Amino acid sequence: MGMGMGVMFMFISLSKPLKTLSPIRPPKRLFHWSFILTIISQIIIHFSTLFYFISLAEPHIVKDESFKPDADFKPNLKNTVVYIFNMTCMTTNFFVNYEGPPLTESITENAKLKKVLMALYGIIIASALDVEIVWEYLELVPFPTEDFCYKILLALALNVGLCYYSSKFIK
To answer: Which of 27, 85, 136, 141 could, after both became Cys, cross-link 32 (CB 3.0–4.6 A)?
Structure first.
């Protein structure tokens, strides 16, 4: 996950400026009301999703020695859903908050960034589905039921969609 975030930062910094001036003007202040409302809406959406994931995972968790402080790491369902959520949250923040015009090329024109975002979303979907090689590599545990998997995927899709559309609506 850290490598993916680092690569996205690199491709954002390498995005090219527009060749011609855009008719859209950027906000005059850093603390513009649209930025603040966008961030607040994303925080609300992300925390709502996180609380939903934890409430979904709690009934399936068996408390054992790994829950004690200073115990060795042992993957469990809560770790898995929080990891998948965290990866989705960070990828979505890059996707939603990347401005593009009027200053730089849009996300569709920034091919490298677009490919990294698609790859990260692919890993997220593979993590949420029962792709064994991904589970083993990331030290995740399988979901208890197929219904649980669908609930996680639906919540992730809603998280991304709500963040994107709330940001576009506010701006």
So the answer is: 27
